[in-house]
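A common beginner's mistake is to predict each chain separately and then try to dock the pieces by hand. The better habit, illustrated here, is to supply every component at once so that their relative placement is modeled jointly.
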Amino acid sequence: MAVSAQYVARETATNLWRNRLMTIAAILTVAVSLSLVGVSLLLRQGVAQATSQWQHGVNVLVFLDPTTPVPTTPTAQQHTIDQQLTQLPYVKSCTYSSQAADYAQAKRLLDPSAASVLSVATTPASWRCVLSQPSEAAAVARQFTGFPGVDGQVQYPQKAIRTMETVVHVLDAVFLVLAVILLLSAAVLILNTIRLAIFARRREVSVMKLVGATNWFIRIPFMFEGIVQGVAGAAVAVLVTIGLHAVLDHFAGHDVNSLLYDMRTPAPEVAMTVVLVAVIGVVIGAAGSAIGIRRFLDS
Amino acid sequence: MIRFENVTKAYKAGTVAVRDVSLDIDKGEFVFLVGPSGSGKTTLIRLLLREETPDQGRIWVAGREIARLSPWRIPYLRRNIGCVFQDFRLLPNKSVFENVAFALEVIGRPRHVVESQVPQVLDLVGLGKKRDSLPGELSGGEQQRVAVARAFVNRPLLLLADEPTGNLDPATSQGIMKLLDRINRTGTTVVIATHDAGIVDQMRRRVVELHRGELVRDQERGVYGYGT
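With all components supplied together, the output reads:
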C-alpha cells in the first residue's frame, strides 16, 4: 500500500511538535550518549596515534668496542654489522653515530663531573636502530650481544617498552569497552523514550488499527520521528566530538614533548568517527521506533 | 454476510466467553445482540474484527474465512467493517473533520476523495456545522455521531456497534439509533451489541440473545425481554 510522502511528513512534523517534551528528551539522550561514544572513540584514536608516535622513537643501541681503532668511518667489520642489522626483519633503519658524535652527546646528557672521565677515544661509536616492531627489541639485542666488534651489552629500553605496551593495551580496551557500554545504554534509553512516546499515543494507534491501517502505515511515521530524533542527537554529538578534537589540537599546540601533541589525530580519522556517530544515531532512531511500536501492532 | 459455525472462545483464565455459537446474518440485516454483561457480546464483536481468534469453529465475513487470515490481511478485513464503541474512541486533539478524514487517510485514499466524502458524511450525521470543533467541545451524543461518521465514511459492508448508547441518555440514544437505521437502509449490514432494552423494544428488529456465552434466542422482530 502506498504511504504518501505528504502524509508521513505532516504526521511526523505534527507528532514531533505535539510531543515536543518527549522529542527533546529523546534528542538529548541521543546527544549525550553519542557524544560520550564519540569522545571515547576519539580518545582511543588518540592513544593509538600516540603509541605509533612513541614507537618511532624506540631504539636499539649497538655500541661498538672503542678499543677497535675506528675514528670516523665504519670499517669492514662495522659494515657487516650494518648489513646484519638492516637484514633483520624487525629493523626499520639504522644510523651510525661516530665516537665524536657520541662523545658530544654524552657531554650534553651527563653532568660535567661524569663527562670529564670520558674522552673521544674511550667513547664507543654506536648504531642506533629504529624497529618496526618494538616488542622485538629483545630478540634484536640478543642477536648482537657478543658479536665481534660489539662492545658487551646491546642496550634497549626493555622495561619502558613493556610498560608502554601494557598501558596502551589497557587504555585501548578501556575505551573500547566504554564506547560499547555507552552505545548499549544509549540504545536502551532511546528505545525507552520512544516506547514512552508511543505509549502516550496508543489510543491513536488503536484507532488506526481499527480503521484498517496497515502495520507499515502505522510504523513509518514513528520511524521517521525516531530518525529525526536520532539525527538531531547525532548532530549535537558530532559537534561535541569535533569541538573536543579542536580543543585538544589547540592545547597540543606545537609542543613536541607534550602527550597531547602525540595524541593529535589526523582529520580523516576524526571524520570516520563523526560519520560512525551519525550513522549510529540514524540506526538507533529507526530501530528504536520499530521495536518500540512492535507490541502495539498485530503480530 | 456473517456466519459463525460452532464457534467457541475461552480466555486464558479459563472463562468460556463464547460456547458453540452458530449464527447466520444476511447482507443488509439489522441485528441486536443482547444479553447481560459477560454474556459474550463483546467477544463476538472482537472475533468479527479479528482482534481475537476462535479456539474452535469457523467464522466467515463477506465470504472470507477470517480465523485463518494471515496477519497482513487483517487491515483489509477491517476496511470492510465500520466500528462504533461505547467510549467513542475519537482522537481528542484532532477536529471533527480530521477525525473522520483520518479513517480515509489511513487507508491511503487520495485528498480529493477525503475532501468530498467527509463533508457528505458529516451532513448525514447532522454535524456539518461542527466540522472544526474538537471532540471535547461536543456533547456525548455529538461525539458518538462523529464516531458513526468515521465508521461509515468508507462505506463499509458491515457496521458493528458495541454498546453505542451506553453513555447516552434515552433521547440522545434514540437519535443515534435513527442514524444507524438510516445507514442500514443504504444496504449496510448493522450489528449492535447492547443491553439497552429501551432501544431494542422500540426498533423491533432481529434479536439474538446470549447467556453465559451460549446463544439462547434468535427472534425476528424481537424485543429485549424474554417471551413478550
